[in-house]
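User: Hey, quick favor. My workstation is busy. Could you predict this chain's structure for me?
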Amino acid sequence: MQRLGGARRRPLASSRVAGVDPGALWRGLTGREGGVADRIVPPTGHTATLTTFSAGVMAFLAVFALALALATGRLADRWAEGLAQTATVRITAPAGEMEAQAAAVLEVLRTTPGVAQAQAVPPEQVAALLEPWFGPDMPVDALPIPQLVELQMERGEFDHEALQLRLEAEAPGAVLDDHTAWRRPLIAAARALRVLGWLSLGLIAAVAVAMITLAATAALAANGQVIRVLRLVGARDITIATAFVRRFTRRAALGAAAGTALGMGAVAALPDMQAAGGFLTGLGFHGWGWLWPLLIPLVAGAVGFFATRRAALRMLREVR
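Assistant: No problem, here it is.
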């Protein structure tokens, strides 16, 4: 009789694993049956601490990676839009001809289609631009500094080559600089940082999957004898899987919620661009962008659900 009973139990356990339905697993997570199944998994221990801590740390890092991706995206768009509508004319001429060539350049710019505004840069502003390199006591007036003319261009097509030819004809010492030489590398760098931010989010999600899977596998392996006893008394594999998936999904979501809250608080405490004046001090969320980090706990819960489900199904096939 014992041999007969043992022969019956093995195919029964195998059929239970094969018949684990994701829909039934979800109902077990959200229904009353999940509360009974929680008793199978110890609520405390190293696996609980590891899952909650790792989810919190990953969520904290994800907030900063998301802020970096969004901030660099705004930075690239601002540079691409702002610098594309500006240009500078540099006039190099003897002192006696500087005023005449500057007036000729301004007249050419006023009659050029697509130029919204053109004005000569005052010597005081040029001196302020050179002060960080030469210091406040440097006699800038004694230096052969070219005359600068700033121009704002209207949106749309603008023929830079035609304007340069006109300037050369009217003012031989005038050179048009549309900022292309240093605008493109800055925009490319900002876009590369944005890609790096999204790549960091992907790596954080991958590490979270690995940590949760490791913790769930360790918990299942430690409770292997308990699983065998539960099968002997008639417990279904869906009930056992639901117990582990429910527990680890909640741990991942709660840990991620705490890490997200800390990360959003840290981002909110960063100085803004006006206060600090730094290059990337605009790192953060603006307006509706503050809603994006709220998705991190939901994503962490989904990661915990699928990672634990995969680990539970694999371990239940191995435990006999």
